[in-house]
Amino acid sequence: MAAFLRSLGRVTPIALSNSFLSQSKSSPKYAFTLSAIAAISGGASFFYYFSSPNLVHLEQVKGEESRDIALVPDKWIEFKLQDTARVSHNTQLFRFSFDPTKKLGLDVASCIVTRAPLGQDAAGKPKYVIRPYTPISDPESKGYFDLLIKVYPEGKMSQHFASLKPGDVVEVKGPIEKLRYTPNMKKHIGMIAGGSGITPMLQVIEAILKNPDDKTQISLLYANVSPDDILLKQKLDILAASHPNLKIFYTVDNPTKNWRGGVGYITKNTVEKGLPSPSDDTLVLVCGPPGMMKHISGDKAKDRSQGELTGLLKEVGYTEQMVYKF
């Protein structure tokens, strides 16, 4: 456990200097510093479809390098839970281990897909619940990966994760590439995230900020139910304070007395003031629950392709080429 907690400081190249404490599920006597959490697991409430035309398996590395990657794109691999810890009222951290000579094998922006047994069908064959998650650990880390998962009362997969004990295994497949990010691909990237939809945004943010040659400007609008639901706010605030090319605006539905951010849904005015103007040098990334997606950009199509652009972003003047829906 102690090694697990110490190694959190190596999760990302950008660490938090101030932290909060939480108790470990497996070892209650320990408290630890979440000093380097870079992202949270995403998509906890959404099914993943392998037939999705807009999600492409990353090409498996050939030759010598293929032996350095733990993931296999077309095969479910078991990863053992090393430890777990509670980090908030409904969020837990999970560390999974594998061969210490290998990397997990992720690029930006990509995720993994997990599955868990969910009884049997009428023919007696196993049924599974399947969900995508984004590891929070540095892609260069060897021998482990970390997931930060929001546990929902009715969430079949998140409840399964919450029931795991050290030594239990989870089946994983991937990586799955969503948006292939390259440095300076756009002058200005706007982001709209809701709840756990912050995951892919943080993956892109970290990739930009840790590269001194990447001059991309980033504007993030982050919406949540309450201030307590803002995931990794301390991390985000420190990143924004230390990187002038990152601007963040928070808004919540249920503010507290001391809340100083926005209140209510993201509006057309919020988008116009907080995001870059539509242009060929602009890209807006969107990720959040279905209701928010419908309001902001329209959801993806039934086949999980990008679908038609609607909502506030279309009203403001963005085109489908300027928007990517995670």
What's the short version?
The protein is built from seven helices and 15 strands. It has 326 residues and is an alpha/beta fold.
Protein traits:
Rossmann fold, 6-stranded parallel β-sheet, single chain, alpha/beta, Elongation Factor Tu (Ef-tu), domain 3, 2 domains
What does this structure look like?
It is an enzyme of class 1 (oxidoreductase). The protein is of the alpha/beta class and 326 residues long. The protein contains seven helices and 15 strands. Strands 3, 4, 5, 6, 7, 8 and 9 form a seven-stranded antiparallel beta sheet that branches. A six-stranded parallel beta sheet has the order 13-12-11-10-14-15, sandwiched between helices. A two-stranded antiparallel ribbon has the order 1-2. A hairpin with a 5-residue loop joins strand 6 (110-120) and strand 7. It is globular, with a radius of gyration of 19 Å. The model is unreliable at 1-65 (pLDDT under 50).
Ordered list of secondary-structure elements with their pairings:
Layout: H1 2-7, E1 21-23, E2 31-33, E3 56-57, E4 77-86, E5 91-97, E6 110-120, E7 126-133, E8 144-150, H2 156-163, E9 169-177, E10 188-194, H3 198-209, E11 217-224, H4 233-242, E12 246-252, E13 262-263, H5 268-274, E14 282-287, H6 290-296, H7 311-316, E15 323-325
Parallel strand pairs: 10-11, 10-14, 11-12, 12-13, 14-15
Antiparallel strand pairs: 1-2, 3-9, 4-5, 4-9, 5-8, 6-7, 6-9
